[in-house]
């Protein structure tokens, strides 16, 4: 039995992306589309960290609040946040008020800048994440077949931790890779399968 839901527009989506308009729009326009800029990758890394233990809908509906709170996820700006900023953010009802996750986001901004300095001009967090793109991606027919970790996400998580990043376990990192298009876990038959320009419907690189 298919786990895809065909909407009034005739497009097939997984059930999680078929319940609410905001989740449907996110699935249709953003999730799994390639993000290769430093700020975009840093934002999604931060949001995946905040999502740990919560539903993605909870994070998505606070996204603009997160952007306001964290200076549009500009790593240079966030790296300058102080303990006073942490206390301010703990009072901000527009975000998830979790001290550890707030402090990790600030720490990760600093690690993002350190990565630039270590690797040289033009090399960023985005380059590091995309360097762990696998040789092929999964081809799930059901949600039960969608992986939650991979050899590459475990290796990337280990490397991020080595470089001082926090809240970057293999599962969180795999979710990041899904969101950025580094892997494609769209169900076979979904209207989004193979549309990123990164992966073909057969699980092999599109280019």
UniProtKB/TrEMBL annotation:
Keyword Hydrolase: yes
Record-listed Zn(2+) binding positions: 186
Keyword Zinc part of the UniProt annotation: yes
Top-level taxon of origin: Bacteria
Keywords: Glycosidase, Hydrolase, Metal-binding, Zinc
GO molecular function, one term: metal ion binding
Enzyme class, spelled out: hydrolase
Record-listed E.C. numbers: 3.2.2.20
Example GO BP: base-excision repair
InterPro entries referenced in this protein's UniProt entry, alphabetically: Adenine_glyco, DNA-3mA_glycosylase, DNA_glycosylase
This protein's name: DNA-3-methyladenine glycosylase I
Protein source organism: Brachybacterium aquaticum
